[in-house]
Amino acid sequence: MLAIADTSLSHVAAHLDEFERDGARDWTTGVWQAGSLQVMGRGAVYLKGRISGKYLGLSNLRMTAHLDTAKDPQLADFATNLLDPTRFYPVYGDGSQQVQDVQARGKLYVVVEADEGKAQFGNFRSGIQGLELLRYDRALYGARVEAKLANTPGMETKAAVFGAQQDRAVMRRTDVLRGTGGSLFYLAGRDVLEGSERVELVVRDRNSGLELTRLAQQRNNDYTIDYREGRLLFKSPVNSAIDGGLGIGGVGLPGGHLAWNGQPVFLEVVYEARGMAAADNAAFGGQVQQNLAGGKLSVGAAFVQEGRGESDPTYRTVGAHAKLQIAQRSQATVEYAYSQSRDTLLSASDDGGLTFGTPKYPTQVGGNGQAVEGQAVKAQVEVSLSDFAGTPADLPKGATPTESGRVKAWWQWVQPGFQSGGTIAQQGQQRFGLDSNFALSKQNVLSLRYDGMLAEGKPDLLGGPGMQSQWGSGAQAMAGSFSAWNRHTILLQDTHKLSPRWTANSGASWGWSETYGSTAAAQDGAHSVTVGGGAAWRATDRLTLRGDQQLIAAGDAGQLRGWGDHLISSVGADYRLDKALALTLNQRLGWGGQNSTAAGLRTMLDKDTSLYAQQRLEDTLQTGRLVSATVLGAEQRWGQDQTSRGFAEYQVDALGTGAMNRAVMGVGKRFQISEGLRLDAGYERQQVFSGPSGAMSRDALSLGGEWLKSDWWKLTSRQEMRLDAGDPSTGGLRKLQILSLNNGQLALSRELTLFGRANYTRTHNQTADAIEAEAMESTVAVAYRPITSNWLNVLGKATRLLEQRPANEASGAQLRSDKLILALEPSAELPMRLQLSQKWAWQSATERMTGSDVDATSDRWLWVTRLAWHTTDALDLAAEYRWLTTPLIGDTKHGALAEVAYLFAKAIRVGIGYNFSHIAQTPAGSIETTSDEGGFYLRLIGLY
């Protein structure tokens, strides 16, 4: 246990931070006034303990408690009370990490944990979640209790409840961004509260729109974030699509093309940002889950209510779900959810956050003056036939039986007005389908898939600058990232391995599509019937030849203008260069005069999946002129000997309906050149067809590498370029975005090391010749650390920071800031066991608002001096004085801190002290002042 108490007595004329932060004088602030005297008092207690074994019926009881009477939740920064180890640049030492065991914005923080559950009062995440439809995960300050009861095996009960008072100065936001093939994304809101974000990559089925995969991303492992500017930077590019699986079902439908759409990838970010909310009413809710039948059946329910004051309707959501484990690999699930009003501010973007669209439907109050409400239901069953086929008698010991088949069926209905995190872009839609494959024999696999979707109302759910038609979500585009339409497709496919060298495949598809195009035919719907067959022959271990024939029996009249348009033949060859890379050549000939020549590279992603990137020359409209287009195909194989193949390819659309569609290709590979040397390369292309192929495009190229083997120098670098080329005839823009990340280290000697970092990103609107966004961090640092003697250590650093984020409705006008920071930190060992450390820092900052010719320039000077006494070889007593001035406004702040530090094993120094100042630095070194960084602290420094 640690405890501290302090008080001060002063005249009312004394200007102290503790008195001036708030005018209140009562027990809530710890400040009292009597005549011309004012008194301030503060007490703080920290307690951490553990009880082994059983106590009060609980196992392994653990407790952490903290009380600080000086904290004011209305004034304290929510951000500084959430865990973020990289928040501040260290004032002393080579590097530091803040570990915040107590996370409390208010005065009190208590956590009691046991094997049976947890009770918490402080900062927490609500963590209410169903199977998929219901999600509520806010960062709040209040109470949360969760319990686990397991009196009978297989009959476990889990429950959680929470209650909290909302913060009026905090807005909850949800951004849905389509993958761009790059690493840089901007959020719609800025001034994000540190630690409040939840970042997830979501992959959805391109036909049904159902969620296939949801991957949580970890800060500092998968991405870094600039909270002030709302900028996300991923460690690797985020693709816009992945392997598409089965895909010929769209042949002959409006909007169908030779190219592959792929399974779209979205980035979903839920976060808290500063902004005036409607009210600070209470938020509360709970969730319970019960396992039955030995754990084979699980049922659950949840409820959440969030007050919005008198001006806006209260948000409520309730849901229930059940999950039945039929067998080891077979299960069935059902979920129901209901919501009232909106749960979050929604923004969506197709261009990485440069522009954002917003909902075109009411989110809080409908036309009848009542709160918007809606329901959602989802049912799904997945059966593996192997669970019921039994184990073959001749199966070798330890071997796994061959998958004999699987069947998956689903139905989902999201009513207009239903609002919860995972279904924001699916309102007013019914989605249903069936996906199955059956191993008829060891050489023969049959696949059957059905996808259906019914949309209620208009397909363009979102509108605004971020939803322009050239990127698939405007009035002219029915198959974009955030659009809905009516559609049914059925695909039957058979793959047969005739011999070790011969494989045959055949398939048939039927489709019906109703879009909201410009013609009556498109609005009434179009049918498509396609059959096809082909074969592949492995001539040598490296060379494979193939051919196929397709017949479009029925389809969109805009495509089928004569009998020749119904027939398409194709021949091709693959030549394997190595285990993971092959050259491909394909010639496709439409008997109506269309032709397409494709050449490219095929790369294996894993043992079951491959992508092929191709450059095509096409004459799709019989004009006699070849038009270039870049496309992507995909294969996914499964089953014994990999005989089952899902292939993705679309027919050319003559665009009689005026609808558009986007094709995507992507390829990437990592090369291990030698030990310590690695290179990475990736390329992605998106292409929108609105006439002859290649009308609009987006290209994203990434190159990277690292050299880490040498003891004297190390280097890492990543370069990215993204070019958006919109169609000028529809108002499209041409934008170029570049990203450069570079880090280096050079050991000039064993005692002198040079460090360098250069990060830069810029988005240039080439159409308007304007810079939409720009950011730079360039740093050069030198460290002098003698090996044989330790009497002098010197650190020097020069940093330039440049920031201009995109302008949008959420963040307001653009602010461009430019900062230059110089810092020098010498540390010397003196006689009488004394150590003197200094820090001198200067910051020059220039800011300008967009459209203004006036610069606001200011300088800041920081001086820190530290004197330590080595009382023993391991124990230090230290005092530190800090002084900060801003000459432009004549503001000067200063203060001191005292510390006791102990050195463990000559490698770790642990310091305990009290900071009487309010001076800190941001991660990049920008000098800032805070209102609550003073007080008790624990410092850990590693020595090497």
Give an overview in words.
It is a single chain. With 944 residues, the chain is mostly beta strands. Helix content is 1%, strand content 57%. The chain is built from three helices and 56 strands. The strands form seven sheets. It has a 26-stranded antiparallel β-sheet that branches. A 15-stranded antiparallel β-sheet has the order 40-41-42-43-44-45-46-47-48-49-50-51-52-53-56, with no helix packed on it. The model is unreliable at 74-98, 243-262, 465-481, 516-523, 605-664, 690-694 and 921-926 (pLDDT under 50).
How many strand elements?
Answer: 56
Helix content: under 10%
Unreliable segments of 5+ consecutive residues: 74-98, 243-262, 465-481, 516-523, 605-664, 690-694, 921-926
Mean pLDDT: 73
What does the largest sheet look like?
26 strands, antiparallel
Structural class label: mainly beta
Summarize the structure.
The chain is mainly β and 944 residues long.
Keywords, please?
1% helix, mainly beta, 944 residues, 56 strands, 15-stranded antiparallel β-sheet
